[in-house]
Every structure is written in structure tokens, then in C-alpha cells.
Amino acid sequence: MEMHQIRYFLKAGETLNFTRAAEQCGVSVPSLSRAIRHLEEELGGQLFRRERHLTHLTDLGRLMFEHFSVMSRAAEAAKREARDYTRLAGSRLKLGIFASIGASVLTGYLVALRDQAPELELHVWEANCEELEDALLGGEIDIALTSSPEVDKRIRMVPLFREAFYISFAPGHRFGAMNAVPMCELEGENYVKRLHCEFPSNLARLGIPKPYDAVNVRYVGEREDWIQSLVRAGLGCAVMPENLPLLPGLEMRPLVDPEVFRQISLTTVAGRPHSPAVAAAVAAAQHYRWPGGAAG
Question: Which fold has domain 93-158+265-287?
């Protein structure tokens, strides 16, 4: 027996009218009658008795109506739960991010995740890369976006894209006359430093272990809008990742000799089974078009 036969039978049993039942099922009367006849052949007995213009359930029909009603409700519940599972209704995901990721990059990914799991409850937790690593291993967060060049071996990294670093400065600065700024040109420049900035670790990977020894650190701050406002006021320059939005009036040039970049990756705990929410986040990250196209 097939579910559409059961559905036709139940509707006919509710209405006791084949014409009305066929209309409500969106099929012709012959199609409904044929499906019920096949069901009767399989069950080995008559389900309806027709007397002139009246239709009644037989004893077998009433018995089957009870059983098939239970089956129909169970099938609907199964479809509902499968739909909710796919949409991740009631599921929660704790996503860790680092502070200097560009807002447009992050929100673009979150829109892609929303499209894949529209009912997922998302909690975003911001910290530096080292804290994200500790939070992942400790179970405080489920997944993280990080730019750390090296992580604990217990953490699985999925590379997403590579992002260049630029130097930002106020209009009128000597860097404005350059197409790109060699790293050696930063020596002696007044500098605005971010707290918890991952820039030094990316330079260390390139063999420049102490980048702040070359510059004159004049101001230290935590909020990005303050950092950029200080730079715009001419109080120093600052390194900016390629996709970080700039305040109006700021200028920036790529850093070269060497080119400085960071690798953005999605991280989870290696060996820890993915929950449906984490699996959805990983799938969305792998299908999302990150800046520069494919992952680096």
C-alpha cells in the first residue's frame, strides 16, 4: 500500500462522499476510486458500502480508518521533525570570531548560513585568536573563524581565504605618494597599536619577529573606530587587513617586501563529532564565496 492510497481512503472516510473527497485531495473521482479499490484488494475486503446516494464504512473500513489515522499522524510528525531537523529549529550555535574580521565578510557568511539553516539560533562571541582556541577546546564555543597561523594540533583548520595587510594613514602622509609601502619604510613612523592584534604573529611567520621595535608606538587602543579615528587625525599610521571597512578620509597602501597576509580559517575540535548546527556552519563556509574566490 502507498501513502496516497491511505490519504485518499481517510479523506473518503471523513467525508463519506467520493466526489468531495476527490476535490479535497486534488484528484479526479476515478483516480480516488481506483486507489481505494487497490487498497481493498491488498487488504482482502471491502472498505466502503454504497447504498444509493449514501456511502458507509464497513466494519473493516472502520477498523482500517483507526489504524490508518494513526499511521497518517505518525507520517506527518516524521515529516515535520525531518523538516525541523533540516532547518535546525531549536538548535544553537556558538560562533567565535576575531575582532578585526571585516563586517561585510562576516555578515555575508552569516547570511549564507541563515539561508541554509533559517531557524538556527546563533550566538557570536568575539575574542582574540588565542582565546578562541582555548574556548574551542574548553567547549565554550562550537566553531570559530580565526587568523592564527598556528593552532593546537587538537584543532582542525579549514582554510577559507587569504587576506593581505595594508598600512593606513591620513591624507598628506608621505605613503600617499607610493603605490605600495615596503616594510622597511615603517621604521621610525608614529604608530597606533591595537590591543590583541594578531599582526605580529603573521609577521613572525615571515621571519620578522618584533615588528613594533621598528615603529614608534604612540597610542594603544582596543576599539577599531578609535584606532581609525586616531590615524585619520594624523596621530600615527596603523596596519589594516584588506577587507576591514575604513572611515571616510583614510588612505591605505599594500605592504610589500615582504608581502604580509593572514590566512582566515574555520576551526573546530579535531575528532569531536559535528552536531547538526556545526555541520551546517562548515557546509555554509565551504560553499560561501569568500573574498578572492577560493580558499587560500
Answer: D-Maltodextrin-Binding Protein; domain 2 (3.40.190)
| 1.10.10.10, 1.10.1740.10, 2.60.40.10, 3.40.50.2300: CATH of 3-87 | 1.10.10.10
- Indicate yes or no: pTM above 0.90: no
Residue-by-residue DSSP string for the chain = --HHHHHHHHHHHHHS-HHHHHHHHTS-HHHHHHHHHHHHHHHTS--EEEETTEEEE-HHHHHHHHHHHHHHHHHHHHHHHHHHHHHTTT-EEEEEE-TTS-HHHHHHHHHHHHHHSTT-EEEEEE--HHHHHHHHHHTS-SEEEE--SS--TTEEEEEEEEEEEEEEE-TT-GGGG-SSEEGGGGTT-EEEEETT-SHHHHHHHTT---GGGTSEEEEEES-HHHHHHHHHTTS-BEEEETTSPPPTT-EEEEEETTT-EEEEEEEEETTSPPPHHHHHHHHHHHHS-BTTBS--
Model pLDDT for residues 157-184, shown as the tens digit of each residue: 999 999 999 999 999 999 999 999 998 8
pLDDT tens digits along 9-56: 999 999 999 999 999 999 999 999 999 999 999 999 999 998 777 889
What's 162-261's CATH class?
alpha beta
